[in-house]
Write a structure and sequence with these properties.
By secondary structure, the chain is an alpha+beta fold.
């Protein structure tokens, strides 16, 4: 059985959401982040960087939430062709790096985030999800940022109604509610 390692309030929730979407059986291994359990053995044998999340799937070990989402999409989500996988990786990287960094960096937040939201508003105006008509790991990655943004960085989607509706659609999903509904 696949094992997912993470903290109570960590990016492991993003992976957990996608595992719930896929219906993959998994065991969640809760690490005591306050006690630094993620920075010591035996966990550092799984991820020597000492960050969460990480997965162990049989003999295969992987860390970094974006890489894990791509792996799960390929192994359990039916993403098999290289072009689709590249586009999926592009959106996951956008969510985690471009959008996530813009949210987190106070110095650029006021200018970069609205510009990115303007672009997303245009992109989502003719499709239901990032990859088109089907929900994917890309939506999990961006959906998590759109969920965390208001909570952690005061993100407002008021000027971006299409993005706001997209975020509401994602947050209404059963797997999202299972993962984040208790917060």
């Amino acid at each position: 059985m696949l094992k997912l390692y993470g903290g109570a309030r960590s990016r492991a929730s993003v992976v957990k959401w996608y595992l719930e979407e896929l219906g993959v059986d998994y065991e969640f291994i809760l690490l005591d982040m306050q006690a630094g359990e993620h920075r010591q053995a035996p966990y550092t044998n799984i991820n020597p960087i000492g960050k969460v999340p990480a997965i162990v799937d049989g003999d295969f070990t992987l860390w970094e939430s974006g890489a894990i989402l791509g792996y799960l999409a390929a192994k359990y989500g039916g993403v098999s062709d290289i072009e689709t996988r590249a586009q999926l990786d592009q959106w996951i990287d956008f969510a985690n790096s471009t959008f996530g960094s813009a949210l987190a960096m106070e110095a650029v937040r006021e200018t970069a985030v609205p510009r990115l939201l303007d672009s997303l508003e245009t992109i989502l105006s003719d499709r239901d999800f990032l990859m088109g008509s089907d929900f994917s790991a890309a939506d999990v990655a961006l959906g998590a940022m759109l969920y965390y943004g208001p909570l952690m960085f005061g993100l407002s989607l008021e000027q971006h109604p299409i993005v706001a509706q997209y975020a509401q659609t994602l947050q209404a999903r059963s797997a999202f509610q299972t993962t984040f509904g208790d917060r």
